[in-house]
Amino acid sequence: MKKLTGAVALLASGALLLSGCSTTSTSSTEAGTTAAASADGVKVAFVSQVEGIPYFNGFKTGGEKAAKDLGISFTQTGPAKADSTEQVKILDGLVAQKYDAIAVSPLDPTSINSSLATAAEAGVKVATSDADAPDSARQVFVSQASDADLGSTVMDQLAEAVGKSGEYGIVSGSADTATFNNWIAAAQERQESAYPDMKLVGGIRYTTDTAQALQEAQNLMTANPDLKGIIAVPSTAIPGVAQAVQNAGAIGKVAVTGFGSPKTAAEFLESGAMTSTVLWNVEDLGYLTVWALDQLVEGKEFQASNTVSGLDSPVTYDAASKTLLLGKPTVFTKENYADYDF
Amino acid sequence: MSAATVAGADPIIRDARLLSILRWAQQLLMPVLLVVEIVLFTILSPHFMTSQNWVNIATNSADLALIAAGLTLIVIMAGIDVSTGFAVGLIGWFVATGMAQGRPPILVLTVALVIGIVIGLFNGALTVGLSIPSIVATLGTSAIFQTLLFALWNSTDVFARPVFPWLSGQARIGALPAVVFLVVVVYAALHLLLSRTTYGRSVYAIGSNVEAAALAGIKIARVRMIAYVILGALVGLAACLYSARIGVVQASSGSDLTMLAIASVVVGGTSVLGGEGSVLRTLGGLIFIAVLRNGVVLAGVPSLWNGVMIGLVILLAVSINGLVVRISRRQRRSL
């Protein structure tokens, strides 16, 4: 018994040590500040959800480009590991450093609220971008694309690939992820109204990881030999579903599309197992966010439709929800995926 | 006098009869359930009884089969390992990265086996050396493996090519996937090890009664350690199969395997109380679960029902097992 207690104590201290380790490893990684000469000295910053991953690297590329075009200074920083308390600390630090405007992609929309309120009281312009904190003091939310647009674009892509008729399946992630469910609902709505000759078979398959997505896709193809397409919803399902199609030698017979970054889908776009993937252009999102922060600092109002010089299409603004919408989703295919680095 | 004898003998006879029925049910449960399941799915879906579907089932469960085989040894000794899934994910990351960097396949395979054995030694050292209950120890290591995998993955998916063609589900020998032969060899070897060797007898002896086994001169620590090393090596091999089959390693890779491996062993009829079981039973349990996971989709049942069915069968198997133990104890007391 004594031995057991000792062992448990040892394990507990080990766990403590482990948690200690993880706290130190979440220390922020400060990204380099754009060296652009800022004539009027405007300093803006963005706090990412986790720094160093391809997605937020893409955001930074766009943000730095905007800062250069606008002649302001831009800093991007974020936690090394997705950790909402760490993110709040980083935000507080930026407020103390007297940035003029700060945008954040909140990991947790509630715990960030008080920090955003403090920042706003201190006279800092605050915005959310990429993810929202609707009940916070943020003055604008820069949204990448609406769930409805993403869902219907994916369905359009699938319909085009399968010739607007036939059976298709949906492989989703966990059943309680609201974003996935919104995308799927929009896709199904689009199919029912625009492509009546298409039919969802097997219901929505919920999966937890790539291995499960692979099996579900395989079983869907076995159970429905006439299956013509599959929508892979989360980034974990994309490689699994595409791999299943590849393994079954069904490239060209079963089309796969989904919501994945060009990098996640690259291998399968190249092999033909995926016909396309739909997401937004994160570099443009970074560009728009920095532009919006600059507008806030300058005290300029957003119009219902705004022309941003660095972006191809005009950006709409919804005054009721204080949301700037980047625009329609971007479709990545074999032809253009290599142009993107996220 | 005679009345007393009858009154005393009656429950004993009744118990003996009940016990023989239960033991019989214990033996037959899995074969019967398997037959029922296969017949049912064949009726429900025209696509179930096809060679392609069976090839799918076999390749998808080969990695799980290897883990469950090794885990059986641990469970027979009344132990458990809940770290196998993330161990596969972690080793899978090294395998995928090694292959992506173009390292020689033989080196990648060796590294996978070595990491697997090190993980086995680590789990073994905690449970054997420090006497931490195996469920607590492996819960701890599981959390460590998961965190390590998360840190190594760092939001970048690693795409993997098969280490060797025969380690992927795509390679065939005759009509069968090559991995099936690998699984058969492993199960045959472990079956012989358990049923024909002194080591195997020691495993059962430890599971039945540790004190008695120690008194009989069995080196308990060594026997346990060897079992963890065998499981570790099999986990390493499973990681090669897994990364070849899925083609990508992410932060959640392998997570499913832990519960499925335990379920295969338990559903197969190996007693979690130790001392009883075999790898062949595990194979039966594994086939049952693999077929169930495949068949429910083909039959058009929402995948959520998988869990309910597997759970019910586990409870059934464990209850029969528990009854056998209780009645045989009562019988021993009254004799």
Briefly characterize the structure.
The complex is a heterodimer of chains A (342) and B (335). With 342 residues, chain A is an alpha/beta fold. Chain A has helices at 2-25, 54-70, 84-96, 113-121, 147-162, 178-194, 210-223, 237-247, 262-271, 282-298, and strands spanning 29-30, 43-47, 73-78, 101-104, 125-129, 140-143, 166-172, 198-206, 227-232, 255-258, 277-279, 305-306, 315-318, 323-325, 330-332.
Textual characterization of the structure:
The complex is a heterodimer of chains A (342) and B (335). By secondary structure, chain A is of the alpha/beta class. Chain A has 10 helices and 15 strands. A 9-stranded mixed sheet of chain A has the order 1-3-2-4-5-6-14-13-12, with helices on both faces. Chain A has a 4-stranded parallel sheet with strand order 8-7-9-10, with helices on both faces. The longest helix of chain A has 24 residues, at 2-25. Chain A is elongated. The model of chain A is unreliable at 1-39 (pLDDT under 50). Mean pLDDT of chain B is 88; it is low at 1-5. With 335 residues, chain B is mainly alpha-helical. Chain B has helices at 2-44, 51-76, 84-100, 105-129, 134-153, 178-196, 198-208, 210-215, 220-246, 257-268, 279-298, 304-334, and strands spanning 158-159, 172-173, 176-177, 248-249. Helix content of chain B is 77%, strand content 2%. Chain B has 12 helices and 4 strands. In chain B, the strands form 2 sheets. A two-stranded antiparallel ribbon of chain B has the order 1-4. Chain B is globular. The chains are: A alpha/beta (342), B mainly alpha (335).
List keywords for this structure.
heterodimer; A: 342 residues; nine-stranded mixed beta sheet; four-stranded parallel beta sheet; 20% strand; disordered N terminus; B: 335 residues; mainly alpha; two-stranded antiparallel sheet; two-stranded antiparallel ribbon; 2% strand
